[in-house]
């Protein structure tokens, strides 16, 4: 079977990257309403992550609810983090494209890249929470069409510097004497990823030259199928879109908990992780319908710990977690985005991250995971 990786090409070989996804999800017990304390806790974890040697942190955009994330503007928070960190990469994952003017995404991404001295990464997606669209007066049903119109404008904003639009959703003119500023440190732009779960969105990510970003839900086998589909369409990305620094990257988010033994990991995490996964995918909820379309999980029995731990969670001893990561690497994963609910408590979470950094991270950062190549 031909390798999915870019070995033997001019692309730089590289090791597996490991980041952490933060949604600023409050724990009602320790961060009571109106939950301002969540931001101090998340900042503390991010600063610890840099000291521990993680490659990146990712900040998710969410609005109007305390049941998942409280983070209305990743750009603002990343600007703050740029001043408090020095080496860790700073990512937005994802900016909900239909909720923003495309040129504001271009301007802000470039500005954060400057303030972080070239450490910014950008993940984009169409969104999946109807109440966020309702609250901002934007059609949820038209979100994919809005994103489809916005993405080429965002890319042109970086590549052409002057952009005009006369579309259904966007009408503007930056031309002649006017030019898009600021312009980023990383050229032609920071690494761009697209959050994609459906066949259509995965193919679109490849055709637009994006790195592929995968959620916490798909199993290893589903990730492999998504990688195959992504590679099938990589050759469709034209110049200059195929010069994205992240093109060929597959970043997989995974619920993670490491402890001394598999049994200890289950003891410390089972209640919190099953509660989180069930609530996130609850039938009849405002998110369950969409996520059910892009996930291979359905029914409460699928969210029992024994089912989740096989192919979905990165939970267990260091040896178990390393073996599972190797399975994802073999499926085409080039980088990981660790994630976890807030219910373990701050100290237990930090202890878990320290153990991961000591016993797992050194092994993972030695795994060869260069960017993918297009399927032949």
Give an overview of the whole structure.
With 376 residues, the chain is an alpha/beta fold. The protein has one domain (17-364): Luciferase-like domain (TIM Barrel, Alpha-Beta Barrel), CATH 3.20.20. The chain has 13 helices and eleven strands. The chain has helices spanning 37-52, 74-84, 102-115, 130-136, 143-159, 199-207, 220-234, 262-280, 288-294, 305-308, 318-330, 346-359, 361-364, and strands spanning 17-22, 56-59, 89-96, 120-125, 163-166, 171-174, 192-195, 211-214, 250-258, 314-316, 335-339. The strands form two sheets. An eight-stranded parallel beta barrel has the order 1-2-3-4-7-8-9-11, surrounded by eight helices. Strands 5-6 form a two-stranded antiparallel sheet. α6 (199-207) crosses α7. It starts with 16 loop residues before the first strand and ends in a 12-residue tail after the last helix.
SSE map:
Elements: E1 17-22, H1 37-52, E2 56-59, H2 74-84, E3 89-96, H3 102-115, E4 120-125, H4 130-136, H5 143-159, E5 163-166, E6 171-174, E7 192-195, H6 199-207, E8 211-214, H7 220-234, E9 250-258, H8 262-280, H9 288-294, H10 305-308, E10 314-316, H11 318-330, E11 335-339, H12 346-359, H13 361-364
Helix pairs in contact: 1-12, 2-3, 3-5, 6-7
What is the compact description of this entry?
This protein is α/β, with parallel strands linked by helices and 376 residues long.
CATH class: Alpha Beta
Structural class: alpha/beta
Q: How large is the count of helical segments?
A: 13
Question: In total, how many domains does the architecture comprise?
Answer: 1
Query: What characterizes the major β-sheet?
Result: 8 strands, parallel, barrel
Q: Which percent band covers the strand fraction?
A: 15-25%
Q: Helical proportion?
A: 25-40%
Q: What is the strand tally?
A: 11
> Strand order across the biggest sheet?
1-2-3-4-7-8-9-11
CATH homologous superfamily classification:
Luciferase-like domain
CATH architecture: Alpha-Beta Barrel
Radius of gyration: 20 Å
Mean pLDDT: 92
Determine the N-to-C terminus distance.
Answer: 11 Å
């Amino acid at each position: 079977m031909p390798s999915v990786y870019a070995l033997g090409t001019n692309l730089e070989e590289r090791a597996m990257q490991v980041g952490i996804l933060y949604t600023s999800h409050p724990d009602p017990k320790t961060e009571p309403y109106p939950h301002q304390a969540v931001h101090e806790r998340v900042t503390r974890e991010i600063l610890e992550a840099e000291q521990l040697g993680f490659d990146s942190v990712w900040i998710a955009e969410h609005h109007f609810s305390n049941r998942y994330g409280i983070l209305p503007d990743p750009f603002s928070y990343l600007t703050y983090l740029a001043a408090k960190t020095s080496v860790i990469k700073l990512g937005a994952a994802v900016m909900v494209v239909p909720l923003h003017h495309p040129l504001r995404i271009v301007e802000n991404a470039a500005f954060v890249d400057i303030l972080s001295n070239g450490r910014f990464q950008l993940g984009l997606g169409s969104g999946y929470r109807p109440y966020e669209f309702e609250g901002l007066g934007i059609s949820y049903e038209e979100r994919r069409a809005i994103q489809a119109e916005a993405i080429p404008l965002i890319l042109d904003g970086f590549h052409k510097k002057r952009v005009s639009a006369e579309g259904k959703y966007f009408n503007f003119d930056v031309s002649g004497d006017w030019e898009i500023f600021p312009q980023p440190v990383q050229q032609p732009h920071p690494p761009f990823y697209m959050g994609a779960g459906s066949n259509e969105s995965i193919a679109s990510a490849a055709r637009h030259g994006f790195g592929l970003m995968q959620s916490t839900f798909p199993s290893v086998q589903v990730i492999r199928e998504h990688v195959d589909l992504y590679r099938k369409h990589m050759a469709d990305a034209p110049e200059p879109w195929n010069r994205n620094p992240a093109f060929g990257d597959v970043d997989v988010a995974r619920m993670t908990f490491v402890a001394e033994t598999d049994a200890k990991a289950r003891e410390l995490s089972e209640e919190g992780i099953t509660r989180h996964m069930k609530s996130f995918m609850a039938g009849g909820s405002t998110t369950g319908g969409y996520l059910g379309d892009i996930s291979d999980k359905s029914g409460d029995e699928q969210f029992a710990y024994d089912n989740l731990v096989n192919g979905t969670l990165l939970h267990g001893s260091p040896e178990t977690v390393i073996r599972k990561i190797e399975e994802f690497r073999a499926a085409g994963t080039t980088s990981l985005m660790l994630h976890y609910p807030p219910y373990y408590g701050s100290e237990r979470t930090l202890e878990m991250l320290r153990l991961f950094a000591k016993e797992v991270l050194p092994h993972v950062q030695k795994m060869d995971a260069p960017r993918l190549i297009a399927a032949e």
